[in-house]
Automatic annotation (TrEMBL):
The keyword 4Fe-4S belongs to this UniProt entry's keyword annotation: no
InterPro entries (alphabetical): TIMP, TIMP-like_OB-fold, TIMP_C, TIMP_CS
Domain of life of the native organism: Eukaryota
Annotated keywords: Disulfide bond, Metal-binding, Metalloenzyme inhibitor, Metalloprotease inhibitor, Protease inhibitor, Secreted, Signal, Zinc
UniProt protein name: Uncharacterized protein
Gene source species: Periophthalmus magnuspinnatus
MF GO annotations: metal ion binding; metalloendopeptidase inhibitor activity; protease binding
Length: 205
């Protein structure tokens, strides 16, 4: 991620982000499809990183607790009034970030939040971020780790990247959105006909 950050220094400063750095700490994160991060956000930001510096949090007495403070220029902002505590920032030049907003307006980015280069996003992901993901925020995405893995209802999409690709950044994460159809059911969508075989329910043979 340091290569991504350093590639965008020197741009205009408009906003400050803070990310916690905890030396020696490991993190066990709950897997999340990009759409899940999007739908849990109250604001989506597309921006460019202009700079960074390491600072100490004002509410921490630990000498090992540091923050990386990013300065960014916002390009595009989307807001949802009913959403909870999370923020998704899609950064044009460097990284895509998710985090939580503090009372003073800063965004805190943790180790389990989304960090991704905008240029590394697929064309489908960029389209999904623009309009498709929001069409499926009422749908539920269920992660499949092993078989059997079956849908529990019509309002659910099975996320099977781990089973098919042994990765959480597989075909469904990079190409598909789980959207609500006209009959109120939910289904994976890529831009063409919904898949019929690739992501069906997994059961024991």
């Amino acid at each position: 991620m340091s290569q991504h950050r350093s590639a965008c220094l020197g741009l205009v400063v408009l906003l400050v982000l803070g990310v916690l750095v905890e030396d020696g700490e490991s993190c066990s994160c709950q897997p999340a499809h990009p759409q899940q991060l999007f739908c849990s956000a109250e604001i989506v930001i597309r921006a460019k990183i202009s700079g960074e510096k390491i600072v100490s949090p004002s509410n921490s007495s630990s000498p090992y607790m540091k923050m990386i403070q990013y300065e960014i220029k916002m390009i595009k902002v989307r807001e949802w009034t009913q959403a909870p505590k999370y923020i998704v920032a899609i950064l044009k030049c460097s990284c895509a970030l998710t985090g939580s907003m503090w009372s003073d307006g800063r965004i805190s980015i943790g180790q389990c939040d989304l960090v991704e280069s905008w240029d590394n996003l697929s064309l489908s992901q960029k389209k999904n971020l623009n309009y498709r993901y929001q069409m499926g925020c009422e749908c539920r995405i269920n992660t499949c780790y092993s078989v059997p893995c079956a849908s529990t209802g019509d309002h659910e999409c099975l996320w099977t990247d781990w089973l098919l690709d042994n990765s959480l950044n597989g075909e469904q994460a990079r190409q598909y959105a789980c959207i609500r159809r006209s009959d109120s059911s939910c289904s994976w969508y890529r831009g063409g006909p919904p898949p019929e075989k690739d992501f069906q329910d997994f059961t024991d043979p």
